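Appendix B, Record 12. Input sequence as logged:
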Amino acid sequence: MKTKEYKNNITEGVIWKQLLLFFFPLLFGTFFQQLYNTVDAVVVGQFVGKEALAEVGGASAMVINIFVGFFVGISSGATVTISQFFGGGRMREVRESIHTAVALSVTAGLGIMVIGLVSAPVLLSVMKTPPETMEGSILYLRIYFCGMVGNLIYNMGSGVLRAMGDSKRPLYFLIASCLVNVVLDIVLVAAAGLGVAGVAIATILSQAFSAVLVCITLLRFPEEYRLQPRNIRFHGWVLKRIIAIGIPAGFQSLMYSLSNALIQTNVNSFGTDTVAAWTAYSKIDALFWMVVSAFGISITTFVGQNYGAGLYQRVRKGVRQCFLITALFTLVLNVMIFSFGHLLFRLFTKDTAVIEIGIMMIRFLVPAFMTYICIEIYSGALRGMGDSLIPMLITCGGICGLRVVWLFIVVPKWNSMKTVMASYPITWVITSILFLIYYSWYTKKHDIR
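Logged structural output:
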């Protein structure tokens, strides 16, 4: 296989077209990634009950996001590093970065698996998981953590492919593994009656399948940067670079997850119906997060390669166009979810009390989605330029810090679900303003125009 097969047009051509060509495979990839948990929720909600729906979502989902989100943040350091080397034609550095990234995935996967198996009951207890869902939640988490190595290898491997401009194959792998997950869910839950255990087993097997597919691709790379198992190890200088860029992003994701876990703790105090509604709502609003996340990854890779190639004017234009396109997509999604959310809720449950609470959540939060765009696009662009520390500080202070203050000071005085949910739009608006100011200052200081 020749090197030219891996070349891309991210550093040339019409910017908005290149962004969309990169975006759509990412969007569908993110969709199928999300479909793992959504299918799990639909199957258990329909075939087991609302308690099982709360067990595979709710606190369990928050715990998973804490660990996986932290690693995915760190892996963004590898994506940025490889995209800059690849854009600059530095293939030896690309090769060493790939082997270091895979070594990091395996090591982190084993570590998270052990920590997760031991800490699951404690974390669920701290988050005030309802007693009637505690046993099932622990079982689900422990099985899920057993598949963590495959999960992280896929996430890192797909990041490597995207760094080189290939967003299609990660999509193909996810489609295949998601189909496996659907089939296994039906067999293990609907047919065999294994409940949440069946859902967890189906998920880790399908994630392992996607990891195998991405590894086969890396093994078939051009020889100058092909993955060779015997050479999988840490290259110190590469690891330092990945960590320098990735740790702030990982810490940012961790703070996000912890603040969301604190919100989940407050949600849990309102009972099983509210937990089930919040679980279903999180699957519905994932439509927005899929879109904005895909654009965030797109602009990070776009900026990384163009910045590495010294095309600074193209960087600025790309960020502006990406912002406008993201706003348009968000507006369309707002209208769709707000109009048809009640129908989407019925996919997860027939319980009228749960549906009523869920519709209230949609009407309160969906109109605020537009206020988040600045955060994702500008932080992604800044990471592409190698600046991840200040974006992390802005996010942690503007979103996570303020959210914690809100939950500890405001919520106890006006203890309602709407007061808890208000922490989202308030912190989004403040953080977006901070990002707008910092991005403008950064690009002027570094003469990126």
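Residues 1-7 have pLDDT under 50 and may be disordered.
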